[in-house]
Structures are given as C-alpha cells and as structure tokens.
Design goal:
Elements lengths: L1 E10 L8 E8 L5 H11 L4 E6 L6 E7 L4 E2 L3 H14 L8 E4 L5 E7 L8 E7 L4 E2 L6 H5 L7 E6 L3 E6 L2 H6 L4 H4 L6 E7 L10 E7 L4 E4 L6 H12 L3 E6 L5 E8 L2 E6 L1 E11 L2
Parallel strand pairs: 2-3, 4-6, 11-12, 13-15
Antiparallel strand pairs: 1-2, 1-18, 3-4, 4-5, 6-7, 7-8, 8-17, 9-10, 10-11, 12-13, 13-14, 15-16, 16-17
Amino acid sequence: MTTLPLYLVDAFASRPFSGNPAAVCPLPRAADERWMQSVALEMQQAETAFLQREPGGGDRFALRWFTPVCEVALCGHATLASAHVLWERGDVARDATIRFVTRKSGELTARRHRAAGAASDSIELDFPAEPAREAAPPPALIPALRLQDGARARFVGQNRMDWLVEIEDEATLRALKPDLAALATIPTRGVIVTARASQSASNGVDFVSRFFAPAAGVPEDPVTGSAHCALAPHWCERLGRKTLTGFQASARGGLVGVELAGARVLLRGQAVTVVRGELLAEA
C-alpha cells in the first residue's frame, strides 16, 4: 500500500475554518489522471491540487487542479494552498520564489509578501489577467441569478473560463439565491457576480463578489482566486486604481488583495493548515 502526504488548507484566510479549503497532495512522480480525479472526488473540496517537483530539482513544480468532477485550467486558492504547504514542509526556502508549471495557464509564481505596516506575511501569486469582454448573455443566465427588487445587470462579459456579471449594489449581491440547476446548463466553468462595495467599504474593501460553478461540481465557491483575474481588470478600470481589495461574500468569506500589472494580476492572501495526514491509496 502506497502512502502519500495529504493536507487540507484554508486559503485566503488568516484563521481556520474561513476562506476556501483546498486539499493538497505532493507527489513523488507523475500520477494517473483518473486516479487524481478519483482522489478529488473522495476529498469533496472545491479543488484538490497535485504537485510534483520538476526534473532537475529546484523550486519548479508541475501543478494540476481537480474539482470533484473535472480538471480545471486555473485555480487561485489551491495554488496559494500549494505554496503554503511547500514552505511549511521545508521543500523550498521561505525566501524562494516558487514556480508552478501548468497545462493551460503557463507558468505561475508564488512568493512571500509583506505589506507596509502588516504584522505578518501574505502569499503573492502572479497570474495571467483574464479580462471579461462585454457580450450578450445566454438566455438562461440573468433569469437564473434571480435578481430581486428590480435590480439589473450593469455589465455582462465573458472570458475563456467564466461569465462576469456586475450588478448594482452589495446588498443585492449578498441576498442572491440563484437557480443553480439553471446555471449548470450554461456552457461555462462558472459565473462571477460582483458589485462595488458599500457596506464593506468601511473595512477597506473596494468590491465584493460571489462565484457559482455548479457545472464544475462547485455550487458556490467560498473564495475564488482565479475569478479575481477577471475582477481585477474590471474594477481597476472602473475605479482608476491598480491596487484594490476584494471580498468574496460567501458564507465563509475571504479577502483577496489584487494588483493589476499589465497583462498579469498579483493576488495576495494568507493560508492556514487545518489537517495533515496520509492518503492510503494504490497510486
């Protein structure tokens, strides 16, 4: 019987049981894709990350992400969790930049970041910007969101992964109870709904969001790093700033710092290990 280390990490969180949990499984060598999908189904987390050091050693790691039902092209919170695990295990030096090699999103990096006046480090991810281009929504999209009290969509756009819908106010966003079965029929990874912060603005938050991905096996994701690759260019343009703070207003909630850097987005957040264990599996 083969045993492999397995971690459960709350990402975009400064304390346990908040943010977005991800399972992280470091591998000694490449694993079968069907086996990885089976492990992700067993874990029942929004994402399970598998990482393997690239040939030649160093701080480069192959990284793949699986929901319970499919592999995805990009995932922020499981990448942040993976970097946290590698530093925590001592696999890379704490001051090293980790380079993740991915199949569909190129090379991603993670490094430790200390903001001016901050009491502790955060993790900074360097991701591709994924701006949403304005587009006519599928017929089912807006009705499935079940906007209340005459609320309307101010912007609808699409990138290679998701639909982005900006609505009028934070209160409406927090009250959303979408028709998840209807959203699951839309051919997309997920739907990002966002609004400018109002009631959260006093906490330094600039915009709020929620993310629904029932077609990918994730009814509502608690905190979605990759969604902020669309949210950052969207809100930086509207607010005329390059550095912002977003809050994903799920039941668990989480803060994501964003900085637009040309065709890239820097995502910043913290992570906390909740479970360390072993996977008993015939890998």
